[in-house]
Amino acid sequence: MGIKSFEDLEIWKKGMELVGVVYDLTSKGAFIKDFALKEQIRRAVISIPSNIAEGFERGSNTEFIQFLFIAKGSSGEVKTQLRIAFNRNYITKPELDSTVKLLIEISSMIKGLINYLSKTSIKGEKYRYKS
Asked: Which domains does the chain have, with CATH numbers?
C-alpha cells in the first residue's frame, strides 16, 4: 500500500493530534485572555503538521528534509511556550507533562524521518521519471 499522501504519515497525524491538544489548552481559563501567547503558540503548533505536509508535497527529499527541520524547530517553540503558559498558571503540571511528552515523541519522529531521508538513495517523487 505505501505512503500516497502526507495524510498517510503517522508523523503528520501526531502533529494534527497536537494541534487539537494545544487548541483545547488555549481555549480555557486565563490562557484564552492572553492573546499574544495564545496566538503565538497556535501559529507555532499549526506549523508542525503544515510543514510536514508542505515538505512532502514538494516531491524532493532535500526539500522535505528542509521543511522537516522547520517543523522540528516549531516543536521547540511550542515546548517553550507551553513552559511559559505553565509558569503563568495557564495550564496544570499534568497538562504540561502530557503535551510535552507528545511533543518529544513528534520531535523524535521528525528526527528519525530526517535521518532516513538523508540516507536513502531515493531522491523523491520529483525525480522518479528523470534519468
From this structure: 10-120 (1.20.1440.60)
